[in-house]
Amino acid sequence: MGITGIGSERTYIYNSQTGKISSKDGSADEFVDYFNGILSGEDSTTLNGYDRANRTGIKNVVEWAYALGGCQGSKPWLSSDVTECEITCKIVSGEEFVYSVNGEHIMTCFASSMPMPNEIANWSRDLPFKTHQSKAYDSATNGMNFAVGDVFDLGNGYRLRVGENRVEAEGYGSGSAEDDERLRHLEYGLNALIHFADQQCPADFIWPEHMPMLLSLLKELGIDTSREFTLNETKCVVNDGKIEEAGNKWFMPSSVHERLLKRDEELLSRPLSSRK
Known about the structure:
Elements: E1 9-15, E2 20-23, H1 30-35, H2 49-67, E3 71-72, E4 75-76, E5 84-93, E6 96-101, E7 104-110, H3 117-121, E8 135-138, E9 143-145, E10 151-155, E11 158-162, E12 167-170, H4 177-197, H5 211-220, E13 229-231, E14 234-239, E15 242-245, H6 254-268
Parallel strand pairs: 9-13
Antiparallel strand pairs: 1-2, 1-5, 3-4, 5-6, 6-7, 8-9, 10-11, 11-12, 13-14, 14-15
């Protein structure tokens, strides 16, 4: 068996009577011995963290099969008459393992890369902004930059200024109480939006009460929020009235997720023997 890693796809025969697996072609396979308890894995320079995760994944597939009475729909996996089935695992990434039984997709196991406590503590709407190069609206990318030093004149004496680490509003008291309230929402909301666009905090840090004013401001600046748009190189979309990072299914910024996933994939690729 070759080294297991991203892109690996292997099929094994599971026997419900013995609770063990065998290679599809009957050849020797260290992972088979590891799954069946013959090898601990710590003496192997071939087995790695992906194999350990796959062992857990196959056990989860089997447990799920029994929870459903050994069936998926009307197709029996395991029953009194059917004691063996083929289980295939495809490793898409360090956090995504796709399982099929007898050629039919059954489940996808996700293991989210988790940030360290100190990384979560560093997510803030008070950090120094990263973007210092101003960029006006570009219709080709439906995007723009909010950068340190930018000033937005809202009219009637109201302005928003992007400082080093926060957005500052100017002109409170120039208009009505309603105008001041709108300015306050824009001040706090734009501050969170820029930190989000700079990949310094999740989208959840932008509070719902600020969204209407932010979306209105983006529209005034030329952004078409009915489709994907770009702010400070972060691709964004609006779902149910909320600004989110496009394609990001995790609660953390995508750049943080990518860094953590790379870290986890490096750890998974290490031989189990290195963990002694």
